[in-house]
Amino acid sequence: MQISLLEPISTEQEEEKMMHMGFNIENRRYTGSKAKLTDWIFQIIKQECSGEVFADIFAGTGVVSAYASQYFKKIIVNDILFSNQVIYKAFFGNEKWDKEKVMSKIKFYKKLNSKSISENFFSKNFGNKYFGLNDAKIIGFIREDVEKGKGKLNEKEYCILLASLIYSIDRISNTVGHYDAYIRKKPRDNLFNMELIETDNTKSKVEIYRDDANNLIRRIVADVVYIDPPYNSRQYSRFYHVLETLVKWEKPELFGTALKPKPENMSDYCRVKAIDMFEDLISNLKCKYIVVSYNNTYESKSNSSRNKMELKDIREVLEERGKIKVFNKSYQPFNSGKTTFDNHQEFIFLTKVNNI
Question: For the chain, which terminal residue's Cβ has fewer other Cβ atoms within 10 angstroms, N or C?
Fold first, then answer.
């Protein structure tokens, strides 16, 4: 298909498109993100811990791993979501990549004219819902083009393009910050602007996994293991299903008003057996220090936001492995809905493991 350049756009549209000039790893709207807490977390870790290997086994956005790469020689980063794994490979992968080649693709995508693009899987499902129709057509075209050109890209280049697409669409989605549902009003359109993520190869050695954390910890050894699991009933694979569908690009059948695929990667940490999973996890860790992030959302008025594990549960499990120090900080979390948290506190449980 021959794609023509966009017609001259209005000043308002130009300003909207010029707002974003590239993305750092923390530039995501993501439930439970620790982007604003990393300084505090690592102030504690630097003071209380030692070692060369850091494992982040529920890594989410990857911001904690990115920060850890300043202080540890080896980073182990893991998350169950396909979209997060792509982001880790884009930001942390040590493979050499051709920036000029990637930028040429970005420049091409920035000039796409939605009027010359046919409807596609993405626009038919998510257009006029999660995104404006014209923006959805462009997003779907880009995703298909990246996949068709995969043979001419190495893994890092491929993941950089997909990560750049994820970050670019995150800024214009017609949502409250996740994709559990879209806002029930017609979305603004013609906002999409493809920008490159800001990535340099990290100096640390990085191992990237997409695995169930309880399985992974049986195969890895680290000095410091950082643990920030989901604590309430909200499943991340459902919260970010649009990104999972976009990255996997298997074009599955989608169901319901929210257009979700069949469930996969459902976490037991979001169910009543969460404490059993946590106990299994902690008892099988091979490390010197266990660092657990926790917040007190179990006091929330929202049933879906209430934690499946409480402070006393976590303390009892950790005490089986060693001496605990508890740190806390008042913090207003990223709130992706109407839930209100009174006196919200972020906790760090730091355990020095016995017999190490």
Answer: N
